[in-house]
From TrEMBL, chain A:
Part of the tripartite ATP-independent periplasmic (TRAP) transport system. Signal peptide: none annotated. InterPro entries: DctQ, TRAP_DctQ. Residues 23-145 form the Tripartite ATP-independent periplasmic transporters DctQ component domain. This is TRAP transporter small permease protein. GO terms for molecular function: transmembrane transporter activity.
Automatic annotation (TrEMBL), chain B:
Belongs to the TRAP transporter large permease family. NCBIfam families: dctM (TIGR00786). It comes from Pontivivens nitratireducens. This is TRAP transporter large permease protein. Pfam families: DctM. One of its GO terms (cellular component) is plasma membrane.
Length: 164, 429, 330
C-alpha cells in the first residue's frame, strides 16, 4: 500500500467510525434530553452539522481511491482499453485541478475568516479550523490524483479504483 | 450569455455520457462557468463556500443515516423475513413482490421527507430480496428508483415545505393534497408492474409454492420487527418526539436495538454498514455541491429566463401551459436536481399559473411531480444513481430503461391531474 | 454602463423582493440614468443568506443582505441594536435610530467585513406563537420555543421558556407535531412561514427587533464615480424606509390574517410588559459588561441609543421622513 493510501484510509476511518457514530450519539442525546427531560442542548444541532461536514470531507480521498463515484457506464463498457485509460487519466486530471483550486482557496479563506473572526454560533468554534481540514483533504486528493496520473496501475479495468 | 449556458449544458451532458463521474462533471463545468461569468477568484470562493454551506445543512444528516438504516436492516435479515411472508401471501399475483415494494416505499414515505433517501433506503433492503425471488433487474431497479417519488408526495416532505415557503402556499394544504396523488401513483405503478410481467413473465420472478396455511400465518410473524420499526418512527414523528431529520438517526438506534436482541447484527455487519454509509454520503454530497455550483453558474447565464420568457411570449392556454411546463421540466431534469429546478423556474412560472386561474396548491403538487421525473431520467438521474449503488452489476442503461414504464405512468397521471384537478384538491377543500 | 449584481435571500414572489428590492434595483437604474445595469438574483440562487458578507466581500455579488445575526462573532456593538426595547415602536423611527447609531458607532465594525452599507433595515418586534394559550409569563414557563440567533435564544431563556435551535425549514413540521411548543419570530414572518397553520396562540410582547442591514461590495463601491456613489446613497436611503413600510403593512395584515385563521391574539398587559422588561433588562447590563463595562464605547453607545429612541419616539413618521438623510453612512 502506498503512503497516500494509508493517509486516505486513516481519514476515512475518522469519517465512518468516529464522526458518524458521534452524530448518532449527539442527536440521540439531544432528542432524549428534549423530550424526556425538557432540557435540549442548544448546541447539539450545530455540533452534529459540523460533524456531518467533517464526516463528508474526510471520506473524500477514500471515495476517489475506491472509485465509488457514480458515472454513466453507457459507453465505458464498450470502449477499447486505450480509450478507457485516457478517460481514467482525464478524470484524475480534473480531480487534480479541482483539488488544487480547493487547497489554494482554503488558504485564502482562512486568512479572511481569521480577519472576520468567524466562529460557530452556539459553540464559538473558530470556523477556519474546518476550512483548514478541507484544505488538508483537498491536498490529499490532489496528491492521490497526481500519483494516479503519474503511476497509473496497469490493471485490467483502469476505470474502477482499488478494491475494497 | 445564453449561448454560454447552452454550451455548458451540452458540455456537461457530454462529460457525463463519456463516463466522467457525475459529481466531478458538475463541479468542473460549474467552476469553469462561474469563472467565465465572474472571475476565477469568485468561482474558487464558491467552491469552498458551497462545500461548507451544503455540508453543514442539518437536513442532510438524513442522507447518511437513512443509508445506514437501510444497510443495517438488510444485515439483520428482518427484511428477508418480511419478504418471505409477502411471497407466501402474494404469490398468486403477477409481480406481487414488486407491488409490495411500491407500497413499502409509500409507507416509508410517511417517515422520510426526501425522495432520494426513500429510494436508497428501500433499495438497499428490497432489491437483494427481489433478486433472491428471481425478479428481473430492470423491473426491480426501475420500481425502486421511481417509487422514491412516493417519499415526497406522502407527508412529511422537504420539497413541499420549500415550495410552500417560496410561493406562500399553505404547507399543511400541500401535505394533505399530496396523499391522494401519492396513492394513485402507487396504484398506477402496481398496474404498470402487472402489465410488464404479463408482457415479459421473466421479469416477474419465480413462482413461490405457497405452504400450508399454518406456515403462512407463522411467516407473518416476520413482519413484526419491520412493523415495530415503522410504529416507532411514525409514532415518534406524530407524537412530536423528533423531526423527520432526527427520525433517520432514531431509526438507526431502533435497528441497532433490534439487531442486538435478535443477535442478528455482527460487528462486521455494523462496520460494513458504516463504511458504505460514509462512502455513499460523500458521493451524493459531491453531486449536491456540483449541482449547487452548476446552478449558481446557470442562473447567471439567463438561459432559464430566456426559455421561460419564450414560453410566456406564446400566450398559452391552460392545457398548453401544462404541456409546455412538463416539457420544460423534462429537459431541465436532464441536468438539474429538484431544488435547483424549482428555485429557478417557480418564481417565473407561478405568476403565469395564477393568471391562468390555477390553484396554488394544485400547481405545487404538479410541479413537484414533474420535477421528480428528472430524478429517473438520463443522464443525471439521482435516484437511478443511488439505486445503482445497491445493484452494482446492473448497467445504468438498464436501470434507466427499467424506469421508463414508470415515467410513462407518471406522465399519464399528470394528464389525469390536469383534467381532474380535484384529485389533488378535494381533500383540501 | 456598470453591471451591478444584486442578490437577495427571499424569492422573487416575496413582499420584500417586490416592495423593497425590485423598486431599489429600478431606482438604482433610473437615478443613474441607465448607467447602472442591475442583474437581479432573488431566492438565494447565488449564495445562501448566511454567506452574505463573504459573497459581498469577495465579489460574488455587489449588493446583498448581510446580517450580523448570521455572523455573530464578527460583531460586538451591532448586537446592541437587538437589545430588548432598544428601538422605538415605529418601524420608520427604528431605521432612523439605526442610521444615526451606524454613522457614529457601527460603521467600522461593518466595514471591517470589506463591505459598505447599502441601507439599514430591521425586522419588527419578535413575539411568540404557541400551540397552547399564553396569557401570562407563567404559561410560557417550560415551553419549548424554537429560537434563531443568540438574542432570541437568550430572551426565551430569560422568560422561562426552553430555547430549541432548528432550521426554519424543519420548524414547521416540528411545530405541527409538537417537537416544539412555539416559535419566537416577527408576526409578519410567522405568516410568511405559515406558522399560524400549526400554532393558534399568539402572544404579543414586543420583545426585540433583529437588525438586517444590507451590504455593498466595498471594492465595487470605491470604484464608482462620486455621482454614482450619490445614486447609491439616495437609492439606499429610500430602500431602508421602504423596508419599514413593507413590514408595517405585513404586520398589519399578519394580525388580520391570524385573526381570520382563528389564532387567538393576546397582548401582554401593562403589568406583564413590566415583568418582561424586568426579566430582560439584565441583557443591557450584560451587553455593556461584555464590551468593556462602564466608561467604554459600549456604555456610550447604549446611552445614545436610549436617547435616540426617546427622541424619535416623540416624532411622527412624517416628521422623521422629512429630515435630511443621516451623514457619514459610507
Ligand atoms: Na414523505
Ligand atoms: Na434526469
Amino acid at each position: 500500500m502506498t503512503p497516500i493510501s494509508k493517509v486516505s484510509r486513516g481519514l476515512f476511518f475518522l469519517s465512518a467510525y468516529v464522526c458518524l457514530p458521534m452524530i448518532l450519539v449527539l442527536i440521540g442525546v439531544d432528542v432524549t434530553l428534549r423530550y424526556v427531560f425538557n432540557a435540549p442542548l442548544v448546541w447539539a444541532q450545530e455540533a452534529s452539522t459540523i460533524t456531518l461536514f467533517m464526516a463528508i470531507i474526510l471520506a473524500l480521498p477514500e471515495s476517489w481511491r475506491r472509485d465509488v463515484h457514480i458515472r454513466a457506464d453507457f459507453l465505458t463498457t464498450m470502449m477499447r482499453p486505450g480509450l478507457n485509460n485516457a478517460l481514467a487519466r482525464l478524470v484524475w486530471l480534473i480531480l487534480l485541478g479541482v483539488s488544487v483550486l480547493i487547497v489554494i482557496q482554503c488558504w485564502s479563506d482562512i486568512e479572511l475568516m481569521i480577519l472576520f473572526n468567524e466562529r460557530s454560533t452556539d459553540l464559538g468554534l473558530p470556523l477556519h479550523w474546518f476550512r483548514g481540514a478541507l484544505g488538508v483533504v483537498g491536498a490529499v486528493c490532489a496528491v492521490l490524483a497526481g500519483w494516479k496520473l503519474l503511476w497509473p496501475r496497469p490493471s485490467g479495468d483502469p476505470v474502477r479504483g482499488d478494491a475494497l | 450569455m445564453i449561448a454560454l449556458g447552452t454550451g455548458a449544458f451540452v458540455l456537461l451532458i457530454l462529460l457525463i455520457v463519456i463516463g466522467v463521474p457525475i459529481g466531478l462533471s458538475l463541479i468542473a463545468v460549474g467552476i469553469g462557468g462561474l469563472a467565465i461569468v465572474g472571475s476565477l477568484s469568485t468561482a474558487m470562493t464558491q467552491i469552498t463556500l458551497s462545500f461548507w454551506s451544503e455540508g453543514t445543512k442539518f437536513v442532510l444528516i438524513a442522507i447518511p443515516f437513512y443509508i445506514l438504516m437501510g444497510n443495517l436492516i438488510y444485515h439483520t435479515g428482518i427484511a428477508r423475513n418480511m419478504f418471505r411472508a409477502a411471497s407466501y401471501w402474494l404469490s398468486w399475483m403477477p409481480g406481487g413482490l414488486a407491488i409490495a415494494a411500491v407500497f413499502a416505499c409509500a409507507g416509508f414515505g410517511a417517515v422520510s421527507g426526501s425522495s432520494t433517501a426513500t429510494a436508497r433506503t428501500m433499495g438497499a433492503i428490497i432489491i437483494p430480496e427481489m433478486r433472491r425471488y428471481g425478479y428481473g433487474m430492470p423491473l426491480s431497479t426501475g420500481v425502486l428508483s421511481a417509487s422514491g417519488t412516493l417519499g415526497i408526495l406522502i407527508p412529511p416532505s422537504i420539497i413541499m415545505i420549500f415550495y410552500g415557503l417560496m410561493t406562500e402556499t399553505s404547507i399543511g394544504a400541500l401535505f394533505v393534497a399530496g396523499v391522494v396523488p401519492g396513492l394513485i401513483i402507487a396504484l398506477i405503478f402496481a398496474t404498470t408492474i402487472v402489465l410488464i410481467v404479463r408482457i415479459d413473465p421473466d421479469q416477474g420472478g419465480h413462482q413461490v409454492a405457497a405452504p400450508a396455511l399454518a406456515e403462512r400465518v407463522r411467516a407473518l410473524l416476520g413482519v413484526l420487527p419491520v412493523l415495530g420499526l415503522f410504529t416507532v418512527l411514525l409514532g415518534g414523528l406524530y407524537l412530536g418526539v423528533f423531526t423527520p431529520t432526527e427520525g433517520s438517526v432514531i431509526g438507526v438506534f431502533v435497528v441497532l436495538v433490534l439487531g442486538f436482541f435478535q443477535r442478528s447484527l455482527s460487528f462486521d455487519a455494523i462496520r460494513a454498514s458504516l463504511t458504505d454509509a460514509a462512502l455513499m454520503s460523500t458521493m451524493l454530497f459531491v453531486i449536491i455541491v456540483g449541482g449547487t455550483l452548476f446552478t449558481r453558474f446557470l442562473v447567471q447565464t439567463g438561459l432559464i429566463e430566456a426559455i421561460t420568457g419564450a414560453m410566456l411570449a406564446m400566450d398559452l392556454g391552460y392545457f398548453q401551459f401544462i404541456f409546455a411546463v412538463t416539457l420544460l421540466y423534462l429537459v431541465l431534469g436532464c441536468v438539474l436536481d429538484v431544488f435547483g429546478m424549482l428555485i429557478l423556474t417557480v418564481p417565473i412560472l407561478y405568476p403565469i399559473a395564477m393568471a391562468l386561474g390555477i390553484d396554488p396548491v394544485w400547481f405545487g403538487i404538479y410541479v413537484i411531480i414533474v420535477a421528480e421525473i428528472g430524478l429517473v431520467t438520463p443522464p443525471l438521474g439521482v435516484n437511478v444513481y443511488v439505486i445503482k449503488t445497491v445493484a452494482q452489476d446492473v448497467p445504468l442503461g438498464k436501470i434507466f430503461l427499467g424506469c421508463m414504464p414508470f415515467v410513462v405512468g407518471i406522465l399519464g397521471f399528470i394528464g389525469l391531474l390536469a383534467v381532474f384537478p380535484q384529485i389533488a384538491l378535494f381533500l383540501v377543500e | 454602463e456598470t453591471e451591478v449584481i444584486l442578490s437577495y435571500n427571499q424569492p422573487a414572489t416575496s413582499a420584500a423582493w417586490q416592495e423593497v428590492m425590485e423598486p431599489y434595483a429600478a431606482r438604482l437604474e433610473s437615478l443613474s440614468e441607465g448607467e447602472f445595469d442591475v442583474a437581479r438574483y432573488p431566492g438565494e440562487v447565488l449564495h445562501p443568506v448566511a454567506d452574505g458578507f463573504r459573497a459581498a466581500a469577495t465579489g460574488i455579488t455587489d449588493i446583498t443582505s448581510a446580517w450580523p445575526l448570521y455572523q455573530a462573532s464578527s460583531f460586538s456593538l451591532f448586537h446592541g441594536l437587538q437589545l430588548p426595547g432598544a428601538m422605538p415602536d415605529s418601524d420608520i423611527a427604528t431605521v432612523r435610530v439605526m442610521d444615526e447609531l451606524y454613522a457614529t458607532y457601527l460603521r467600522d465594525e461593518y466595514e471591517r467585513m470589506r463591505v459598505k452599507l447599502a441601507f439599514n433595515a430591521s425586522t419588527p418586534s419578535y413575539d411568540i406563537l404557541a400551540s397552547q394559550p399564553i396569557n401570562s409569563l407563567e404559561d410560557l414557563h417550560g415551553l419549548r420555543i424554537r429560537a434563531g440567533g443568540s438574542t432570541a435564544t437568550e430572551i426565551v431563556e430569560r422568560l422561562g421558556g426552553i430555547p430549541v435551535t432548528m432550521a426554519i425549514t424543519d420548524a414547521y413540521t416540528a411545530f405541527q407535531q409538537g417537537v416544539v411548543d412555539g416559535i419566537i419570530l416577527a408576526s409578519a414572518d410567522m405568516v410568511a412561514y405559515r406558522m399560524y397553520e400549526v400554532g393558534k396562540h399568539y402572544y404579543q410582547m414586543n420583545a426585540a427587533r433583529i437588525a438586517i442591514p444590507h451590504a455593498i461590495n466595498a471594492a465595487f463601491y470605491d470604484g464608482l464615480s462620486p455621482e454614482l456613489q450619490a445614486v447609491v446613497a439616495e437609492a439606499g436611503n429610500q430602500a431602508g424606509y421602504d423596508y419599514a413600510r413593507m413590514y408595517m403593512g405585513l404586520t398589519q395584515s399578519a394580525i388580520e390574517r391570524m385573526t381570520e385563521e382563528g389564532v387567538t391574539i393576546v397582548q401582554a398587559s401593562e403589568e406583564e410588559q413590566a415583568r418582561i422588561a424586568e426579566l430582560l433588562n439584565p441583557m443591557w447590563e450584560g451587553f455593556v459588561a461584555e464590551n468593556g463595562g462602564e466608561g467604554s464605547v459600549a456604555a456610550a453607545f447604549v446611552n445614545d441609543m436610549r436617547e435616540l429612541r426617546d427622541k424619535y419616539e416623540g416624532m411622527s413618521d412624517e416628521e422623521i421622513l422629512a429630515l435630511p438623510p443621516v451623514e457619514g453612512l459610507r
